[in-house]
Amino acid sequence: MIAKYIITPYSVLLCLVGVSLLFMGDEITEVADLPQSDIHTILIASLMFGFGLVNWHSKNLTVGGIYGRPLVIGNLAHCLIGSISFVKLAYKNPSALIVILACIYSVFALLFTYLMYIPPKPNNN
Questions:
Q1: In whole angstroms, what is the distance from residue 13 CA to residue 29 CA?
Q2: Which tens digit of pLDDT belongs to each residue from 20-46?
Q3: Which domain does 9 fall in, by range?
Q4: Half-sphere exposure of 17 toward its Cβ, with a 13 Å CA cutoff?
Q5: CB 108 within 8 A of CB 55
Q6: What percent of the chain has pLDDT over 90?
Q7: 107-111 long-range Cβ contacts below 8 angstroms, 24+ apart
Q8: pLDDT for position 122
Q9: With pLDDT > 70 as the criterion, what percentage of the chain qualifies?
Q10: Is residue 100 in a domain?
Q11: Position 124 in a domain
Q12: What is the pLDDT at residue 123?
């Protein structure tokens, strides 16, 4: 049941970031002072939106321990690699957006690590 409270906001965040990058990719990369590449921005946006949809449709599944392990490991890998990358980028280019993203990714990496090792609680739908 706790997985629902972790996966739901994460899926909303991924969908919002994906849609934002799809429609305002140039503006976001300019504000973050990142190099612009249209195809890379579109691919990243579509991946984030798709991953957000997978999470949204999995929010009511039993997740934790061995249940839903591929979903949890995929989310954990994304958050862990993202948090390390954003922290590294924040040292080179300390903009507020990069620091906020580093914090968000780090929190979700910790939450998905926790979710991977706890046994699932019954889902009372």
A1: 18
A2: 988 888 888 777 777 777 777 888 889
A3: 2-117
A4: 19
A5: no
A6: 42
A7: 108/6, 108/10, 108/75, 108/79, 108/83, 109/76, 109/79, 109/80, 109/82, 109/83, 111/6
A8: 64
A9: 96
A10: yes
A11: no
A12: 56
Polymer length in residues for the chain: 125
DSSP at 28: H
Would you state the structure tokens that stand for residue 26, as one six-digit string?
């140039």
**DSSP tag of 121:** P
- Asked if 65 and 118 count as a contact pair (C-beta separation under 8 A), the reply is yes
Within a domain: 52: yes
Phi-psi region of 65 (alpha: psi -120 to 50; beta: other; left: phi over 0): left
| Confidence check: pLDDT of 104 > 90 | yes
Hey, what amino acid is at 30? Answer: E
Q: What is the pTM of this model?
A: 0.82
At 24, the amino acid letter reads: M
Between the alpha carbon of residue 8 and those of residues 3, 28, 38, 96, the distances in Å are: 8, 24, 29, 25
Report yes or no on 20 lying in a domain: yes
